[in-house]
């Protein structure tokens, strides 16, 4: 696993046991009134993201839907995380250079913020151009800031975290985070067969639960699109393209779940959403860059192929006639 230790980059680390996705290590907050020390202002903040990563996708979507594209600038990293330097600025389609710090690697952004930083170098990163540091690198926090603190500069009429639904949104977010967003990584990054076997059922049981919950419903909470839907969507939209094949999440496809499939398509077709989904980045990242992280000796549980299913009558009749 790639990691900074006391500000020094290490490219050859083994996967950390028991921990696949960790919470961000910079946890400051931007607030509309500035009381948190970081005031919401146009042209002050910058996002470092990857189109491959579902956690970064939360923030890309929020920035877009809240109309903050001219308020918060963005740099898009290469999907090629397999490089010894981890997240790099490259010249892939739809990527950008580091327009703020002029760096080649994301780990340089981390050590500029904290020269002795120890930990994972992850996307997304929210950077403050005034103080020259990382405000926050936890997507759940960044998503929340973008949807609640920037209404003076963006689309205030779209409330993605309505007061009256917050308790319910927080509850479903906790479930979706552990069982779905991180659930696919528990399966895909399992280092042993036993770990894999223990992770696959909870993931698909959670999908079954959501399939039932979405029966006759357009959105997860209430009857409106909220940040809970952003957080579920970013994993579901990657499911068949990447997680089914690259992360061995192959008991069922997303398309086998009528409600979840319809729900995901519905969100994909909402205005401005589709352009934030880049399947070329997603596939490149998951299939091409996890050498040494994904244990290729694990035997996947699926796909489920039902050979007890009788052949069609027409086929049998044709065989007899021949
Ligand atoms: N809790 C973090 C997790 C972010 C995360 O793990 N991002 C992945 C990409 S999908 C990453 O950058 N991984 C690099 C690494 O773990 O070294 C968040 O939600 O922001």
What does this structure look like?
The protein folds into two domains: 3-148, Glutaredoxin (3-Layer(aba) Sandwich); 163-271, Glutathione S-transferase Yfyf (Class Pi), Chain A, domain 2. It is α/β, with parallel strands linked by helices and 322 residues long. The protein is globular and about 80 Å long. It has a four-stranded mixed sheet with strand order 6-5-7-8, sandwiched between helices. Strand 5, helix 1 (54-65) and strand 6 (73-76) form a beta-alpha-beta unit. It contains ten helices and eight strands. The protein binds glutathione (GSH). Glutathione binds next to helix 3.
Keywords, separated by commas or semicolons:
38% helix, 4-stranded mixed β-sheet, binds glutathione, two-stranded antiparallel sheet, 2 domains, alpha/beta, 10 helices, Glutaredoxin, 322 residues, Glutathione S-transferase Yfyf (Class Pi), Chain A, domain 2, single chain
